[in-house]
Amino acid sequence: MMGQCGITSSKTVLVFLNLIFWAAAGILCYVGAYVFITYDDYDHFFEDVYTLIPAVIIIAVGALLFLIGLIGCCATVRESHCGLTTFVVILLLVFMTEVAVVVLGYIYRAKVENEVNTSIMKVYDEYNGTNSNAQSRAIDYVQRQLQCCGIHNFSDWKHTHWYEESKNNSVPISCCKIAGCTGSLTHPEDLYQEGCEALVVKKLQEIMMYVIWTALTFAAIQMLGMLCACVVLCRRSKDPAYELLISGGTIA
Fold this sequence. Notes:
Blueprint: H1 2-42, H2 53-78, H3 81-125, H4 134-146, H5 161-166, H6 196-238, H7 240-246
């Protein structure tokens, strides 16, 4: 009776976890898509496209979780030995993949600062203030979004080609923090004081941490799913009375 109770509890938890897997699939795909969209906004400051590998993997895992949830629910309700075994094997593979995502996430997170430091000066040098220039759009977007100005502070604009050519002793309007500001350096109090380099690094590292924590959270849930499936499989194989009950027989 205790064995039957244990199996029933494990099955209930397993069905519930499969519903969570479907929700997790949507969340993983959302996180992966968010990384892609954000990378597109900051790609001029971070040129290593391999940073997107964790996002690609996490989207693929999300799509696979839809299938896993379907297999798990069917196998649990029908108590199919083959189905539950397949479920555990696929979960194990996905778990290993998410561990790889965590490792890659930490590796690329550590590379962010060097990548940004290397590329940001080049991007600022290529700024020309026109909307047709990709670097100009990227810098104006980042300065408005992160409320920053220049690389380390607004005075960095004095060393750019745009400043030398404009000769008006001002910085781009995107550096302004109040309405009516013209970007003039004669009124530095109207400009964002913090530089963009540190904030871009912080933003990109935060994105990587979203990926890492998402992968860790759902890896833990998958471990619980594997444990429950293994409990059902083990109890089912070790309890002849339960096997007879499932097959429709009677116990003498």
